[in-house]
């Protein structure tokens, strides 16, 4: 999309909000025909290059709970057994009563957006009593000389503050998106203390003597073609070069050679360059990166120009916490078109119809004791656990379930990671009490 300077009033900086979907009561059903799986594995997506579509039932058998441990009032960790097209599957489930006093759900995160850490490491650093891994992320890179950023594909909101926005759909990692879903989809908890599955869209502007430029990105590893993105001190020290690589439809397309970068320090332009840089961004500084038409617009700025950068994530309901994940369950029914690739380790999160309960689930896979589940089976598993709406999170070697029981000094991994050890990931969902 061509980005042009226009005369408009800049959007006010605000708390992240979302546009929620109405949740309806319904029994779990079967998913429709699935599209072909992605051509390449992504970010521990639960798929491998050789993964193939699996015939058979789209729902798991009844859940049989094999143990239960109360981590805190309103927070119960359970283990379960079930079965699907891959045979026996075992996993862990965290049931969180969002109305329980002293219970809070928040974003597990490393020290920077473009950084990775293990779920147990993040949970212990932030004093969480339990949690799971979160969104898909930029774990690998095909562009020569461009380092992977480790940052997530979807939005992040923590403490009501927008940390990052979503990359274009074609730039994401993970299984194929069901029809009608996008990288903007999230699961989280609103200021109403209820769980929601919804969508977050970036609304932002760059205002200067030239007019107002639409902001197309916030702390994200890929910008829309022709767009301009803002990077803050929360991004970290990793190169911002990946943001100008790929296209809106294919993440492996070449990097743009028409780029520009502008540093704005406390509202004043301090540098304008054709090269996209790296290194830590000082507090109080915003780095604007443009590609193609966006770069043309940024190059018109001059040192000393006054610039105001404002942004928010928009919708109808305010989020206190949100993390990216693509919807797989709505109104108690699996969505049509869920990826049919074979059973694998999976992570999911869901909310009850009234939004009072949050369910965090991890299913082990690729082992003799647990074959894993397909995405459609994962949706039915959430429904059997009590969810009305839910999302698929990063899976495969990224799937991790951690908990700190009463009297224990730290949270530990309770599932069996398929890589043999816990993988460093972009973010996670943490439960605090």
UniProtKB/TrEMBL annotation:
GO MF entry, a single one: hydrolase activity, acting on glycosyl bonds
Key words of the record: Glycosidase, Hydrolase, Signal
Bias (Low complexity) ranges: 31-42
Region (Disordered): 31-50, 169-188
Pfam hit, one: NAGPA
Signal sequence range: 1-20
Location of the Phosphodiester glycosidase domain: 259-432
Keyword match Ligase: no
Identification of the protein by name: Phosphodiester glycosidase family protein
Taxonomic lineage: Bacteria, Bacillati, Actinomycetota, Actinomycetes, Streptosporangiales
